[in-house]
Amino acid sequence: MSHYNAPLDNIYFLLFDTLKANRLTECEGFEDATEELLKAVIEEAAKLAEQVLLPVNAQGDREGCTYNPESHSVTTPSGFKDAYKHYIQGGWSGLSASPEFGGQGLPHLLKMIVDEMVCSTNLSFGMYPGLSHGAIDCLTKHGNDHLQKAYLPKLITGEWTGTMCLTEPQCGTDLGLINTKATPDNDVYKITGTKIWITGGENDLVDNIVHLVLAKLPDAPEGSRGISLFLVPKILENGERNTVFCGGLEHKMGINGSATCVMNFEDATGWLIGEPNQGLKCMFTMMNAARIMVGIQGLGLAETAYQVSRGFAKERLQSRSLDGAAQPNQKADPIIVHPDVRRMLLRQKAIIEGSRAIAYWTGLHLDYSHSHPESSQRERSDDIVQLMTPIVKSFLTDEGFASCDQALQSMGGAGFTQDWPVEQLLRDGRISRIYEGTNGIQALDLVGRKLTMHNGRLAQVYLSEMKSLLEGIANKQHLATANRFIEVLQETLGGLVIRSAKDPIEAAAIATPLLRMFALTTLAVLWAKMANQTESSSTTSRFRETFLSGKRKTADHFYRLFYPEMIALAEDVKAGKESLMTFSQEEF
Prior knowledge:
The chain has 588 residues and is an alpha+beta fold. It is 56% helix and 11% strand. The longest helix has 37 residues.
């Protein structure tokens, strides 16, 4: 059954009316990114998602990937190879990549919109090209001329895919503990070690897979300061098979159509990326791109879950409305008349539309940071992207999973069955809160790194941007409430960075609620912005009144739901570490 339609009205309202993304044409490199062009690309992406990716999603979940231990090969689910051919023939793999190596050079924001639709309809499929995008970013920024010319063109076309090989059996977050070794051998290196949980480490979609591998040189310093990054292809440039093999597949809770591999490197030939012992710095280029992508995964899954549960609620007849029959000619009323069902649906609606605004606003600044001719704007946007990356990753995946859970709950027993897609969305989405750095790690990154960078400049820039977004808001109640979110955040931040710098346990204890405060503040400001835009004459001529009035009412609902939580989060941060750290291990 078809259960997803690309939310084009919401995308266009946000993109061209609220965020004014058509101003990207003023930026160096994006002169051709007109509203007409962006719409044309988005509508073609919607067709790809709805007509090509969605039909093979459920079968991919039930069939999964198959591993052949004799050939060390992996077969993807039925339909994935054909879908991937459609994907690369459409040029989707190189959408935002550099034209110098065959990319289309379109805005990163446009790629985020396409990624949302791909994740909404087939998250497992989206994992294969998704990691390739990070490899493209890493090589574009850190690769030498030889590696760029040899590997970027086919990664950008999608003829080859890329991976990110970090985790080992004995280490995940603490990458300083890796054991994989890189031994110099003339002008190359021999890589030996085992990596686990490698997305797309082996697959039958492409002929060659480009692994980006963290390893240590013989004379490397201890810990993370001694990590280097290497490019290790499955097939060498002379056509020979490199000695890197899949040792098996992980058996997972979800994303079954995505091959999550154990990868064994046995004196495999590799090339150094960047400088020796600077691998983590290089890899962060890839990781940051992946973290924003994972946030989009949470948004995409939540959108589909909402569409399914909303449609179900309008059709499923159960009981009568408590104030009299809503449909007297039927034996019962649709469950959307019941307040508790509406409570779940409206929470989803407020979070999803707000989360999309957070993601796209961050994407807009990502493009400004790459392309804006004015260096001051570039630096300002780069600060915003750095601050928002852990927030986008954490908040959108936390709330994406929560929205899938609310969707399933609102559907009752039907939601728990495979007759409906929500149970798969829930399983698929659970990993998004874990990989590319757990959401707790993202919170530590925000508090421990981002808030202390450049003497606290990132937070100052963020708060300045929030206030500037509220300029011209006509609704006094929305303006006052959004400003109150900002004030509560500012009050909470006052003295917090200094206090946390003196006591790292204190910083770790308050990191997660503080990250959520940043997210809710951003939502509060963007909801005021969206609601205000519904009154614009240019906007009202584009959209039907029910769409616009729904936006205004959803803004009201968001403030009612989440302002009390903002106050509670501030109290949680104020409490600090005390109630967490007073327990001895034996008292757990």
